[in-house]
Specification:
Blueprint (H helix, E strand, L loop, with lengths): L6 E3 L6 E3 L6 E3 L6 E3 L6 E3 L6 E3 L6 E3 L6 E3 L7
Parallel strand pairs: 1-3, 2-4, 3-5, 4-6, 5-7, 6-8
Length: 79
């Protein structure tokens, strides 16, 4: 079982960022990004662009930025 915690940051272009089983922080970049937290209590930050924030299992925090973002917290008590 991977319980590693990650801090992953997108850059220019359309990024797809996937967290692991731990409590991850994922931050999108300058374009349209897809952030998938996976299990754990994750913090997903959309930033610039039209982003998709997918929390997964756990108590996740989803924060959009500039653009038209889509949110799906998944299972758990999400914010």
């Amino acid at each position: 079982m991977d319980l590693t915690e990650y801090f992953l940051l997108g850059n220019r272009g359309n990024d797809s960022i996937n967290g692991g089983a731990g409590d991850d922080t994922l931050k999108g970049g300058y374009e349209n990004d897809t952030l998938k937290g996976g299990s754990g209590d994750d913090n997903l930050i959309g930033w610039i662009g039209n982003d998709a924030l997918l929390g997964g299992n756990g108590e996740d925090t989803l924060s959009g930025g500039q653009g038209r973002d889509r949110f799906n917290g998944g299972e758990g008590d999400d914010k």
